[in-house]
From TrEMBL:
Species: Caenorhabditis tropicalis
InterPro entries per UniProt: A2M/Complement_sys (IPR050473), MG3 (IPR041555)
Keyword Signal appears in the UniProt entry: yes
One family name in Pfam for this protein: MG3
Protein's recorded name: MG3 domain-containing protein
Length: 286
């Protein structure tokens, strides 16, 4: 009995000691080179077979540390990988195939929009290695009812001279209010399971709102010249947009509390443009 147990234990130890270590990626990168590494205790022959949507790879390699590199380009969501080491099947399983997209950062210029407004979008797609993903991306707006606005569907990719995608998407004039989103995903993500992993969204609201009241600031600049005083007038909406309009500056004596402007001196007026929300006014002593 003890001899049988010893023989069984010795057999298991031998089996464990001779099993190769196979380093397999969690998924195969679509349209890119993929690498599988096999580590053996001694130099043996390994056969790696990859079947991906009709694309077949069959490679033989000899050595203790074996590295196999191959390319995948089929649209199928999985690939079948079988590895034989020294004539024995050590691995036979399916591995997912997907674009090498780790994250897609989406930035928009506002959080609330009205009908017919333009959504300015900036997109930064990154791979698992932290580099720029340069494959095709599908970009669109999804309305408050969950439907894709077909007029906003775009296909873009980051060109070689940039690191981001800039796009303008117009909200239709006749549409639903509520929570909308910018949706971005790789074009190659055709499988439903892969879509859920590769869809990136940025939520915003579409409402019928009026522009809020603006803020008006006036600043006096210290000046050693007693004959004139420089005043800075700044007018902006609460969301940061400059106010387009005119400004009038009045002056009264210190201590005066009257709200009647008829006795005030109208010193200066000026136009405030959308581009420049700050106007500088020089008030000269009379």
């Amino acid at each position: 009995m003890r001899i049988s147990i010893f023989i069984l234990f010795t057999y298991l130890v031998c089996q464990l000691s001779t099993s190769p270590v196979i380093i397999l990626p969690p998924f195969l990168k679509l349209h890119e080179q993929n690498v599988i590494t096999i580590v053996n205790e001694k130099s043996v022959k390994s056969v790696v077979q990859v079947d991906h949507g009709g694309e077949k790879t069959n490679k033989e390699i000899q050595g203790e540390v074996q590295t196999i590199s191959f390319h995948t380009s089929s649209s199928q969501p999985t690939a079948q990988i079988m590895i034989k080491v020294d004539g024995k099947i050590e691995l036979n399983q399916e591995v997912p195939v997907r674009p090498d997209v780790f994250n897609i950062h989406i930035h928009i210029d506002k959080t609330i929009y009205r009908k017919s407004e333009i959504v300015n979008v900036r997109i930064l797609p990154l791979t698992h290695a932290g580099t720029i993903y340069r494959g095709d991306l599908s970009i669109c707006l999804v309305n408050g009812k969950g439907f894709v606005e077909s007029s906003t569907v775009r296909t873009r990719r980051v060109d070689e001279t940039n690191s981001i995608i800039s796009e303008q998407l117009e909200i239709p004039s006749h549409t639903f209010f509520g929570d909308w989103m910018v949706k971005v995903q790789p074009v190659e993500a055709t499988s439903k399971r892969m879509d859920e992993m590769l869809i990136f969204e940025k939520v915003f609201q579409v409402q019928d709102y009026d522009l809020p009241n603006f803020r008006l600031f006036g600043f006096l600049i210290d000046n050693s010249n007693l004959d004139e005083t420089k005043v800075t007038i700044e007018a902006k909406y609460f969301h940061g947009k400059p106010v387009n309009g005119s400004v009038h500056v009045y002056c009264r004596e210190v201590g005066s509390s009257s709200q009647d402007r008829s006795h005030l001196n109208h010193l200066k007026s000026g136009e405030v443009s959308v581009v420049e929300s700050t106007i500088f006014i020089i008030i000269q002593a009379q």
